[in-house]
Amino acid sequence: MCGPLRSIAVSDDDIRAGIARxxxxxxxxxxxxxxxxxxxxxxxxxWEAQFTARQxxxxxxxxxxxxxxxxxxxxxxxxxxxxxxxxxxxxEHCSWRTAEGIGYDPEITRRMVENDIAVCRCVxxxxxxxxxxxxxxxxxxxxxxxxxMRKDGVRFIAGTDAGVPGAAFGDYVGMLDFFATLGFGRCxxxxxxxTGGAAHALGLTDTGALTTGMRADLVVTDGNPLTDPTALxxxxxxFASGRRAPAxxxxxxxxxx
Length: 257
Prior knowledge:
single chain
């Protein structure tokens, strides 16, 4: 599990202690590495579980006891099913991996939709490089799986997986462009990044309208992003809770550390 404090959990007591420690540190979400990834040396393979189904249920229950939701990093098809059964809020990646390839399961998707679990596909802004690295056949299979999930009613939210090699901070719009190439409409793509997708998944009900009692979060662009896909790359102002934010660095640039 990880959050403001990264926790390595082996036993049930480790799980309880890790969640309590993150909650005390001010975390507003618990993220669990439910399956393996691709960057941990000698770690589990991407489709392999790192927690049992029972442990995932415990993680969700303990997080809820502290008033927190759970986001689950999950690549494997079986692991995705365990996350859905456990009641996580979002699934990151959700790539339906098996030892043999991609194993999409519409029944798991049906339960995901029923339980209002959102999917953050974690697409790098430089998705064209990612496609070239994967090769056309594998990249097309991943794209088709995303289309199937969309057709089956999955709620997508926007995210870039920034920080891993090839996924720079700041290129949020590049990731939105990827979904547009798959046939997602401009309004649908914007919804993923705002009220219908991200805000809904985070449980934010006080945003999405300029009216009394709302958060007053606002992005001002040079152009209409519903008709001009490049407008989101020309951000003039950002307001958060009614306060104007400092000027943004050029999109796609690395942030100072």
